[in-house]
Fold these 2 entries.
Entry 1:
Amino acid sequence: MRRNGPLALIFHTVFVIVMVAPILVVCLVAFTPEGFLSLPTNGFSLRWFRTIANYPEFIHAFWVSLGLGALSSLVALLFAVPAALAIARYRFRGRDALAALFLSPLMIPHVVLGIAFLRFFTSAGLGGSFAALIIAHVIIVFPFALRLTLAAATGMDLSVEMAAVSLGAGGWTLFRRVTLPLILPGVISGWALAFIQSFDDLTMTVFLAAPGTETLPVRMFLYIQDNIDPLVTSVSACVIAITMTALILLDRFYGLDRVLAGKGDTGR
Amino acid sequence: MSAVADTAPPGAADARIARAPWVLSAPALMLFVGVLLIPLAMTVMLSFHDWGQYKGIEPVFILKNWHEIATDPYYAEMFWRTFRIAILTTLLTALLGAPEAYILNRMSGRWKSFFLLVILGPLLISVVARTLGWALLFGGNNGLVNKLLMSAGLIRAPIPFMFTETGMVIALAHVMMPFMVLSVWAALQRLDPQIENAAMSLGAGPITTIRRIIMPQIMPGVLSGAIIVFSLSASAFATPAIIGGRRLKVAATLAYDEFLNTLNWPLGAAVATLLLVALVLIVVGSNALIERRYAEVFR
């Protein structure tokens, strides 16, 4: 394999700088000691991080997002793990259609999903409730939970299960003691990826959230619509830090390219 | 998983095996029918309902909203803007993302995985935070981007980025770039490096090699990346809303306004339905074209 020429490396450097710049500038502005948007040229300050404490709506929104992400990803897995085993293990009529249906939330624009859920939950009398948010998020994170579980279940060595069966294990024991531990890395990574997707979703959630059930991205979006000040950069910096931590854990634990490789095919 | 665990007579076992996948996927299937297909059908139906400022939504079947979208040039302009922005974003990501994926693929092990993390990582970082970053970089006439371009002598007067389509395309291209790099990257993984070497040993220069050997082979990757980027850009909400402001509407932000500000739900549902149908037709159509054109790659 040949090396990259100087021109290619210049292109690469500019490309990486442009990719990182918007994220970096948010994190830098968050540390400004000034009362307005500016780069921290006169030293760093944590004043805008402390200011977050004076805005309980941001703190509340953070807990809503955290609970919503954790719960909806867990519920999605409860539905996705058996479905993934069915699709991975059996060849049956309607299998492709079933898989397409389960992955369809990736294809449907989130703005359409937001509208559909708003209409649906309002007529069901659940408009603006936390329960409605959970159900809606279960649907949008389901493909991610399914895909990573599916990858783990497809790559599994079936002879281990057969050995367990020959030793007398059946049904639930077989699943709990043999199958689940073997697919667990895929299941946990599926949970983590689903959590990030839920934690970051704005487009669908903005239709469903009411005061009291606003998630952090929704709260940030509504705030930015009115004005942009260093406060929202310090909140963003916290969100970026949380995602980066999850990202690095995911990379160490499972390999980011493997996690994301599935995402690249969403259009197919 | 109980496929191998059967001690019952063969006939009964067959029936159980045939039933097993449906039993396993039944909960998820019921969930999807109940809270995905039914709400979507309700939305399509909603687009045929009537609405008035004082009477609210009336469940009748009329074509008023569809007629309004078809005849009022405001909607034609808005949809044309939405698709224009999506097309430009797709071109920008393809022109920059494909070479970057190629360069990335030629790096050595450790650098490769580091830069892959740097470029793909933003995919998982909040779109609001990333767009906020662009709003800070653009920031009016003396934003950082303009200062940099002017001091480099590339432009003489500041370019307006905020509340313009130019700014929307740049910020959207940044948000969508990882999808393109990833898609081209996947195509590059299927490529045999020996073919490149063979071309060079036969006397092909670097440009000929890229044009005649690499390009045709990664084209399916570029195209499937383009489909993803296009459909996500055409339905993007956060970036157009923050960079475009309240006046420069695209389909998603207009539907949001109809639902949460004007409260004309039937009209908003019609806009959303049209967006969904247009995107499904474009995505399915171009997938079919690509697969026919590049049938040998997918075989």
Entry 2:
Amino acid sequence: MTVPRRMRRLLVVAAATILLAGCQGGFPADPQGTLDRAREGVLRVGVSENPPWTDVADDGEVSGSEVDLLTDYAETIDAEVEWVPAGENTLAAMMREGQLDVVVGGLASDVPWTSEIAATRPYTTTTGPDGAEVKIVVGVRPGENALMTDIERFLAERGGEL
Amino acid sequence: MNGSEGEGGEEATGSGHDAFGEEQRETLRRATRLEWITIAWMSVTVALVALVAGQSQAMRAAWAEDVLSLLPPIAFLVAARRIRKRPDRRHPYGFHRSIGVAHLVAAIALLAMGGYLAIDSAMTLVTVERPPIGLTVLFGHAIWSGWLMVAVMVVTSIGPVVLGRKKLALSETLHDKVLFADADMGKADWSTAVATIAGVIGVGLGLWWADAAAALLVSVSILRDGVKNLRGSIGGLTDGEARTYDDSAPHPLTRRIEERAEAEPWVGEASARVRDEGHVFHAEVFVVPVAGAEPTLERIAALRDRVDELDWKVHDVVIAPVPELPPTQTFRSTLRTGADDSP
């Protein structure tokens, strides 16, 4: 049950690699490279209608506080936003297929699509129908941790936490 | 316990506590203290890991492992209390077997832990679930949650490793297999920590599978421990031959008991059945007197006392004089058959 010396050496190598990666600012990294792709490119954002966070007009035009939020975020990485309005379960399916990067729609932190949508840390709260506090999050493609931490940093700075 | 003083040392039977010498009593006290510290430490760990675990598979598995690792210390403490009771009409063999039951509980905790971890991480790999590990804001600073997990793993694994080493030393003195299993698990905790840390860092590097692969690796070693302890505990509970505290070999006391009996001038042949009751052994010694020698009550009583004096673990001794060794009840100590190479 002891860890052999070789594994310890491996750990040192791993630690050195991380330090290097950390210096380059590529840590944590995206397994699918989403943030790198979106930077100076296109960020694909699914919108589930849920006013006042998000609203979809008859002509497909999107608006709402979270649409503004993501527009501002996209600016920080010089990305164009491609809005994809649809129902929540369609968006979850698209996320699973890798057709979306982010989902907004006043999602609660206990969003049920955990294997399709990863929740960021809550950036604001509201009150649910039962009077309990609901934490509002943005949905990110699971495992794309560079994109996730970048959005979380943006949300925290905007919310005055940082 | 009260009322047993003065009698415990001389009489072969009594509570498990009476069997102990001063060294064992002190060891049990220290082991009990260590187990209380373990429970306190693990409770804090469980709370801390739950706080930072988030979506990391390996961290969630480490948490489940920590919860389950509370079971062996609890089982030990319950058993240590039970063995203080003295045998009575309804429990003629005493309460020593509580230790065996606690060992079984510890073994099943290990198995459950390893099984849960293996299935959970294999599922993650098969369904390609990429663990999201985001940001934590700590005192106005943004820090990747992965680093917090690494820090918590480092800090929380110190306790079990240090406590495990201490308990391992005590388990031999006490001949306590629960304590041994628990200590072994604690000592292994640091390899769990290393694997978990490697997994989390791997995720940070963009290797989504690193986390689950690390958990799978850890689960294999836990499962192996579980199986080993399950075999050991069931072996003890089903009256298998008494084995050493780590179940690595047949216990040498069986041979010593037979040799002690054969050292009596009136004894020709002797064979002992020795079973591990938990801490202490029960021995039935079959003796065949040499031709012409009379197995008098005095001789039998004297032999019983001498066997009893061999070791504190020899707790309940029955001497059975027989005209010849009954082949279905007596078997040479496996240590001796190995040495003799007899048919």
